[in-house]
Each structure stands twice: as structure tokens, then as C-alpha cells.
Amino acid sequence: MTKILVYRFSAMGDVVMLLPVLKGLLDSNPKLEIYLLTRPFLFPVFEGIDRLHLVAADLKGKHKGARGLFRLYRQLKKEINPDHVFDLHQVLRTHILNFYFRRGGYSVHKLNKGRAEKKHAVKTKSHETLPSSIDRYAAAFSSAGFRFILPPPPLFPIGLRSEALGLLKIDAAETKVLVGIAPFAKHKQKVWGVEKTRELISLLQRIPNSKVVLFGGGKEEMEILDDLASAFPNCVVAGRYVKLADEVKLLPLIDLMVSMDSANMHLAAMAGIPVVSVWGATHPSLGFAPYHQPDENMIQYRGDALRCRPCSVFGNKKCIYGDVRCMKYISVNQVAERVGFLLDHPLQR
């Protein structure tokens, strides 16, 4: 068996986008084993894949700093002794790990993150489509001589609908349509807004035998979601009932997800369900579009009144107008129209 060590530690969405690449590699190369070094809370996304082994990185504890990374290197050398090492993160701590592995005589392959291309696109406000993060991951393996085909979604196992809905205390027999909404993102420049989410949920009440499942995490987000759910009889907050491992089981059984540019968008896309994504400060052309989703499902302001998008690669820069008007200009009807079309049920006010 050929052993590959892969590391990627960062934002959840970036790690989730590794899924089709690693699965495609293993499906196409039966004599290959992959060891994925990442943060333990992300393990449920990759569990159950034959010959994919998950290795925990404790970057705030025993693997912290150069000394901790050397300890990690020695552990990986002893327990895995990989034939190839792939740095799919390209930050300071992975550069340090790369140094240790190279000094130990290992072959280290790096990801081309396309930083210069993305920076140029932001500066010039170009919407020319750049290679996706998934394509960049795949290119790193291809350049090392590995041949494979990216598998289409769904990439999560599809279980029993009654069992998955039971986790949310939802009666599967009485629920014909299940809509997920993930209204938050890491940066507020990527958030459509609570009131617009409330209006959308109100429109979704028109669908008979429907349930709305709200996704989010953290104390502040959960309080907002609880407030939204309390206003509607057919609305539940997923985080009150399930963890990530259960969310992975639930997502393939949802009929549609409405999401911001966030990890939930990528998770839903990997589950193979329609994802209506709402884009503000960021732009799908920079390489973060959801996997196998059509452009029509990506809702964004396309008029002439704004020439400032994308204002940053990750949505972490303050709006030059101060009001994130790229999101303000996206109406509830725009999102509802696409959702209604995909669900075959008109929703516009």
C-alpha cells in the first residue's frame, strides 16, 4: 500500500471541500491509503470512507508551536511513515511541518492557493472564474502523478428518513417537504440578515406539510435561531438536537438548503441536495462556489449600482459603504422565487 499524509487545519468549509478529492483518489487507486491530519471536530465529515484514516492535530495543546509540531512530526513518522506528504494549507505551521519532513527525507507536495490571482480579482473587481478550491486540491495530487476522477454528490451516506428526522423530533410521516436554512457566516459581510430570513420562513409556511430546519452554532447564533423558531409552528433549531455527526446524516434527506457563503453551504452541497446560496461581499468566481451547484442557485446582486464586489476573498473586510448594500439589494422575493422553483411551489409575496 502507498501511504499519503494530507494536512489541512483551517476553516471548516475549506476542509469539507477536500471530501470529493480524497474520496476520488481512494476510489480510483485501490492500493492507496490516505491519512488526513486535521482538527478532530471535523472527523464526522470523513468517517466511514474505506482506507481513509483520521489523525488528530492538537494545535492548541501538545502540537502547539515549533516544538509541538516537531513532536507531531515524530509521531507521524513513527506511526505512518508516509510515502508522500501533501500540504494543502500553506501557512506558517505547515511550512514548519514541511521543513521537518523534508529534512527527514520525505517527498512534500504543496497546494497552489492562487493567492496572487485572487488578490488581482479583488483589486480589479474581476468576475472571471478562477479554479475552485477543489480543483486546486486535485491539481496538487495530479501533479504528483496520481490519477483519479472526482465523484459527484451525494458524498454522505443516505440513511432512513424517519430515523434522521426523529433526531429533530419531527414526524416523518407528516412531513412532506424539509427545508434547511443556515443564515449565518463567519463574517457579517456574508450575512443576508435575520429579518429577511424571518420573511423567507414566513413564505415557507405556505407549503403544506413542511418543516424548516435552522442551522447555526454558538451562543449568540443559537439565541437568534431560537427566537426565529418560536415565531413559527413548523420551525426547529437543529443545534438543539444534533451535533455535526448527526447533521451529516440529516443533510442528504433535506429537500433544499438556503445558506450564506459558509461551511453549511459546502456540507449541503456534498450531501447532494439543491443549495440556494446567498452571496454578498464574496463572489463564487474566486473558487468557493458550492460543489456541483448550478449558477442559477447562487443568488447575488448583478446590477450596475455596485461595482465593489468582491470586496475581499473571505468577506473579512469592512464594507466601504458601511451597510453591506450588496446584501441589502438582494430581496426576499429573489431568494423565494428560486426556492419555490426548486420545490415546485410558488413562494413570492
What features would you describe in this structure?
This protein has 349 residues and is α/β, with parallel strands linked by helices. The chain has two domains: 2-143, Glycogen Phosphorylase B (Rossmann fold); 161-343, Glycogen Phosphorylase B (Rossmann fold). It contains 14 helices and eleven strands. It has helices at 12-16, 19-28, 43-46, 65-79, 92-103, 115-124, 133-143, 161-167, 194-204, 219-230, 244-250, 263-270, 325-328, 332-343, and strands spanning 2-7, 32-38, 52-56, 84-87, 108-110, 177-182, 210-214, 235-237, 256-260, 275-279, 298-300. Strands 8-7-6-9-10-11 form a six-stranded parallel β-sheet. Strands 3-2-1-4-5 form a five-stranded parallel β-sheet, sandwiched between helices. Strand 6 (177-182), helix 9 and strand 7 form a beta-alpha-beta unit. The longest helix has 15 residues, at 65-79. 40% of the residues are buried. The mean pLDDT is 95. Keywords: Glycosyltransferase, Transferase. It comes from Mangrovibacterium diazotrophicum.
